[in-house]
Amino acid sequence: MKYILLVEDDVTFSKMLKQFLERHGYAVDLSYDIHKASELLKKQTYDLVFTDLRLPDGNGITFLKQIKNNKQPIPVVLMTSYAEVSTAVQAMKQGAFDYISKPFNPDEVLEVISNALEEKKSHQIAPVNSSRKDNIKSNLEFVEGISAASKTLNEYIHLVAPINMSVLIIGESGTGKEVVAKNIHLKSSRSDKPFIAVDCGAIPKEIASSEFFGHKKGSFTGATNDKIGHFEAANFGTLFLDEVGNLSYENQVQLLRALQERKVKPIGSNEEVLVDIRLITATNEDLLSAVEKGDFREDLYHRLNEFSIKVPNLKDRNDDLILYADFFLDKANKQLNKSVVGFSKDVLTLFQNYHWPGNLRELSNIIKRATLLTQTEIIHKNVLPDELVYIKEKHMLSNKFSTKENEKELIINALQEVSNNKTQAAKLLDITRKTLYNKIKEYNIN
Ligand SMILES: Nc1ncnc2c1ncn2[C@@H]1O[C@H](COP(=O)(O)OP(=O)(O)OP(=O)(O)O)[C@@H](O)[C@H]1O
């Protein structure tokens, strides 16, 4: 199989191109910028680089020069817009194998690619790196995202992971708090030690201390065996307490004491056990207001919150949506033993317009269900739940600016649906942002 590195920052287009090439038997890795593409080139061997000319962190020619300077004998094909053909010709002089102008038809792409690969074969280039599968596999577990919100999140994860600080992760349900916690653990020096995740909301307060600190056989009715608590189980590793705001006041006191003294005593035991854990906690409620109301201990709050990370809602990471959709589709295909290739354009538009109250978990569930129901190569909107389809149709039906009242109501509804994001609202209403601003002013909408 031939391996292609595709470098293109238009997310929708690049996804479609990737799927198209994969359907034609190529293995494709995708990068949205030169930086990540260079990293991939260091780790893996490719038979072809297929890159856009304009990229967020530089242009395709600079990237081409970089590849040639590193003496990597990989053919490079550039994608250009019609207006950039003269630049593409310049690129050919710098050693690009070929260029192709957008919009291009599928046969053209296949032809250019197969020509480039033929040429490469005659140059006898190094074999494919055998570690590739592992690399790809490990990348699959955590999708970093490319939106501004995801970039900030990932920067914070990288910053705090190596430092032994307690981290409080804040975010709505299903945003990926546990996945972030696991990621911090894996990037820390404790990565080869245990990661123990505990849902505090699911522990009845009567047995919480036995759950956290363990017990000795016979120490209370029902204690038929010795039990190791979560603190001890996580020793030298990371303890992740989800929904920490649900701990009873009494359990908060016990937790604080264990953290301060760095030792725990199992119920019914006389011996204390020294514990060395890194604590990561998560909450989807406003812990500070719980502190103000007296429901959560302030000293514990500060102990947990040495560093806080906010995980963004999915609707605030619109640029990541297709990336995640694709990831969950891959996962669903594997779990269900299916081979669905992608999403119809309609489905992608519905995804972009929906407000995703259940965040990534909801997206994952919807895609799994749709994959199960899909009998063709592509997921169409008939296998999506009503709440997704209905929103779009509601807008399409009423999206006529006929009367002033109708217009004002439409704008208010659209703004509410996308939490006041003007760019999104303008897209939903199919008007420019400038028009939207003018109309907001005209109708005095707050
Ligand atoms: N960065 C990511 N890459 C890949 N999958 C992710 C990512 N973040 C979250 N997920 C997936 O989304 C789903 C929800 O994630 P997770 O359970 O971590 O959310 P949560 O915020 O902890 O949820 P809750 O508030 O209900 O505890 C899971 O299936 C998880 O695997």
TrEMBL record:
Modified residues (4-aspartylphosphate): D52
SUPFAM superfamilies: CheY-like, Homeodomain-like, P-loop containing nucleoside triphosphate hydrolases
InterPro entries given in the database record: AAA+_ATPase (IPR003593), AAA_lid_NorR (IPR058031), CheY-like_superfamily (IPR011006), Homeodomain-like_sf (IPR009057), HTH_Fis (IPR002197), P-loop_NTPase (IPR027417), Sig_transdc_resp-reg_receiver (IPR001789), Sigma_54_int (IPR002078)
Entry-linked Gene3D superfamilies: 1.10.8.60, 3.40.50.2300, Homeodomain-like, P-loop containing nucleotide triphosphate hydrolases
A GO molecular-function descriptor: sequence-specific DNA binding
Domain Response regulatory stretches: 3-117
Domain called Sigma-54 factor interaction: residue spans: 143-372
UniProt entry tagged with the keyword Repressor: no
Keyword Ribonucleoprotein attributed: no
Keywords: ATP-binding, Nucleotide-binding, Phosphoprotein, Transcription, Transcription regulation, Two-component regulatory system
GO biological process: phosphorelay signal transduction system; regulation of DNA-templated transcription
PANTHER family in the record: PROPIONATE CATABOLISM OPERON REGULATORY PROTEIN, TRANSCRIPTIONAL REGULATORY PROTEIN
Stated name of the protein: Sigma-54-dependent Fis family transcriptional regulator
